[in-house]
Amino acid sequence: MAADDYEEVVSGGGLKLKGADLGKKKRKKKKSSLSTSMLDKDKSNYTELARSFIESSSSLQKQKLREEGRVTSEEPRESTSSSIGTPVNITRVEKTRAEIKFEETQKMRLLEKAKKQALKTHKDRVADFNTRLENQSEHFDIPKVGPG
């Protein structure tokens, strides 16, 4: 065992991890800055597109409402948005008798449901749940809920 046996082995620094380049760091590429004039042009294009979109959508909505006969009044109001800056017409739509009655019945049903839930205790709800599970077929075999 002479020193000549180990001459072929190259020793050069510490251990290296697989897949990790510890010595080399990736540099982030600098983003090229756009001139302010190009940004201003883009902003003006977007505002023009937004104005045209709002005008076309409001005219379509008015047309649909006229066909249904539900338009009640139109009031021009100033928009608070700084990007658009043009007055926008807002149309008010009244609800029909059927829609009002439907909402009232929904509220009444919700109140009745809340009253039923308030009358039951937690123990009663668990018992009802367990009876419902017992009535199901064996395919839906779910363990009972409760102590024990």
UniProtKB/TrEMBL annotation:
GO terms for cellular component: nucleolus. Residues 64-78 have a biased composition (Basic and acidic residues). Residues 1-42, 56-89 are annotated as: Disordered. This is DUF1754-domain-containing protein.
